[in-house]
Predict the 3D structure of the following.
Amino acid sequence: MSEVIAIASQKGGVGKTTTAVNLGTSLAILGQRVLLVDLDPQGSIAANFHLEDINVEYGLFDVIVNKIPLALAICDIGLDNLEIVPTNIKNEEEEINYFTHALQVRLLKGILSKIRKEYDYIILDCPPSLGTVTINALTAADALLIPVQPEYFSLKALGKFLRSIKNIGKKHNPQLKLKGILITMFDRRLKRSKAIIGELQYSFKNIVFETIIPRNSKLAEAPAVGKPVALLDMSSPGAVAYFKLAEEIINSRNRR
Amino acid sequence: MSEVIAIASQKGGVGKTTTAVNLGTSLAILGQRVLLVDLDPQGSIAANFHLEDINVEYGLFDVIVNKIPLALAICDIGLDNLEIVPTNIKNEEEEINYFTHALQVRLLKGILSKIRKEYDYIILDCPPSLGTVTINALTAADALLIPVQPEYFSLKALGKFLRSIKNIGKKHNPQLKLKGILITMFDRRLKRSKAIIGELQYSFKNIVFETIIPRNSKLAEAPAVGKPVALLDMSSPGAVAYFKLAEEIINSRNRR
Ligand SMILES: Nc1ncnc2c1ncn2[C@@H]1O[C@H](COP(=O)(O)OP(=O)(O)OP(=O)(O)O)[C@@H](O)[C@H]1O
Ligand SMILES: Nc1ncnc2c1ncn2[C@@H]1O[C@H](COP(=O)(O)OP(=O)(O)OP(=O)(O)O)[C@@H](O)[C@H]1O
Ligand SMILES: [Mg+2]
Ligand SMILES: [Mg+2]
């Protein structure tokens, strides 16, 4: 039986896509069958694997708006145990159309239910907003992972986001669990980062992942060569951290 | 006569809010009368100035959804020549309501027309999306400033974003000009950043601002103490860069 994990945050640029790609790859390398679904109109998952518009025929947009079967939108990217569904939104008119269809909040849950048993993990990369698309993801998900940068705006946004998640959960998906808060882009040299991490671990004690993702150049360089970081440099601090996170997530599931 | 500048990018975390606050403050210190309008449901502008929910009665949400006059939503934050309009969105239901009202794309243009002559610059901080709220901003604006981080995802998103802007301009606001592309968070030590900046300056020759904003701790620390960077440390590389940008913008206006 698969677990659907939504990676969401209203704050932009906190490492949602980087986490979706590298956590997904690490779980796949550890033998889990993984499907990465890109819900963000930016289409960063496709960009990460250099899937240009020419080789993408269908994406989540076509499944949601044009009722294409999900199976046709699943792309093989040549990695064992890892498949992706790109967004495939080409312009702003399609984007508005996509958000409007997503007003039916249980749409994605229904779409994913048909293929759930083929995967161990289905990971949803969300856009930086709390609109209809993210609510669709939270309704379809079993668990939620929230990346947080150790910066003021990101910390500030967290409290409000958690309150909203509680409301959305009560209304649309009472079983939704918080998998955890993941600290990303941690730079050990910055005093402010250590202070914010201290605050996070104090205020959100039991829900912050043990694994902290360091700021690491290899993580930002990997998408430029179309790879997850584990395939660029397996021993880099970024790759090691995402492996540890994958193990932490597999172990927490076994404990349940 | 005032100039309305929208600060927009679909990519999250590229420095839209940091630019709105610090460019706005620099223009105000240089004697320009500035209004900062926060269109982003995250409400980062209010967070930047520590305007907690208790001291905000009305915001752009109330103007757009509840038809409150804009004048009631303008907050004085104790800085000469600088006033702000916070977003004031408290939960996800209000957020969906806000985005739905924004389907009328000329709404903001009408709202701002009543107060334009009281300011030299009106700066719009946009959410990280290309949805109805950003289209409202692009319809109301005279000019657009696009912050870009020297990173792969941000560079990749730029081409598509510029194409969409052209389409939106043709349809809703043919006079919309591109003020420029602003390179933000530049870390001189990173080889990949220099390469991306070279690519930006080559592909977008005449539209990249001369001023480049460096990655600078003071810029990230200032919001934590409720201030723009110029009031935390006027001589910091971050404050100096935003002053230069303000001068570049004032001069380009005079040249026109
Ligand atoms: N740990 C890290 N170390 C260094 N760079 C990182 C790290 N994590 C992410 N990045 C870089 O920071 C930027 C933001 O990350 P990413 O795009 O994954 O965030 P996001 O939350 O998905 O953004 P958006 O809100 O636009 O969807 C990217 O350029 C990415 O390459
Ligand atoms: N030049 C800089 N140097 C160091 N830190 C910066 C710089 N510019 C912005 N930051 C920090 O980077 C993070 C992202 O910046 P900011 O929130 O302004 O981006 P944004 O585009 O408004 O994000 P969003 O897409 O969520 O609205 C913030 O924590 C901010 O403090
Ligand atoms: Mg992303
Ligand atoms: Mg912002």
Remarks:
- The first helix of chain A runs from residue 16 to 29.
- The mean pLDDT of chain A is 95.
- Chain A touches chain B at residues 10-14, 17, 41-42, 44, 47-48, 91-93, 95-96, 99, 127-132, 135, 149, 151-153, 156-157, 163-164, 167-168, 190, 192, 217, 220-221, 223-224 (CB under 8 Å).
- The CA atoms of residues 30 and 246 of chain A lie 8 Å apart.
